[in-house]
């Protein structure tokens, strides 16, 4: 059936007038803004000694900022902590974690409802892709979730669905996505939820990701970082909730309100929880959990099993880097300690090995060793593999692990657990 309109000119005029007014009012409902990355830097202490510029969106103790650790390379981020407690400002979310913007970049909520971060030349670096989806405004809700909402208050977009290296209380990883956290140093380390557990990986550009930690080893579709009061013990439980009827994994139990906590994959690969207790006037932050630690948190593998504990290479004992293994023997450790530089990999390149006794590392815990292999056969396999820097060998079991990365060697009492480090002849 064909549509008909009133024929008289006054009626047509009124019809189109009210139609235009309706669309005009709909557009006017969007609380637009544009903030420019310019002006003086803030005066307070921040993570990584970053310079920062404060932006208006705020919900204590969270505030949006531009920050940088390298001149001219800025991130749009969410800051946690207040200046009242004189505590370090920590960054718990970044819009553009691997694509920094420049001075005079703009952060804007546009009339169409899209939230956009753009460089001064107008090139869009990041956006929420929410144009024409009914967005009317932005706010930070309690707990640190940045949300875009419609005229009924429904969330159209939320930062909790886009974690970077951090999970705030109430934030989740899901098998259906988001599945992972990536560390700040270009994603060198990751915490990944898979269908059979929660795993930690080294993302080495020369090999497939290397498993170095397992936080959970049971099937689940999601994990949520939770803080709950434990009235029986007068504490708060910081835990990973696995969903209905699946239980939870308790990470820490601070003796105070730990609602303002977050879980992070650090730049060194450790998985930690920081808790912020605002009522105190000084040092409001506490590290309440660390996966690789001899002291903080339950049941972890120990501090020396952190692959980066001694930087590129080193021998660790009692959470201290005690020596630099070389072909001349054990020397004093410093940050320049490294595995030997190898000759250009060719068929003719000759390699030899020096032995380090009584050591293990993450590969022997999580790598797939080959059993019933003689040590000379293991050497031959490593020598013919350009990516192999050495190997681990358990002499009683005749088990061999080729090592594309060695990192920290953890001292153990079993002298039959040894490492062979490759060097050029």
Automatic annotation (TrEMBL):
Bulb-type lectin domain span: 30-161
Domain of life: Eukaryota
Signal peptide: 1-28
CDD domains reported in the protein's UniProt record: B_lectin
KW Cytoplasm (keyword) present: no
GO biological process entries: response to other organism
Pfam families xref list: B_lectin
Keywords tagged on the record: Signal
InterPro entries: Bulb-type_lectin_dom, Bulb-type_lectin_dom_sf, G-type_lectin_kinases/EP1-like, SLSG/EP1
Listed name of the protein: Epidermis-specific secreted glycoprotein EP1-like
Upper lineage: Eukaryota, Viridiplantae, Streptophyta, Embryophyta, Tracheophyta
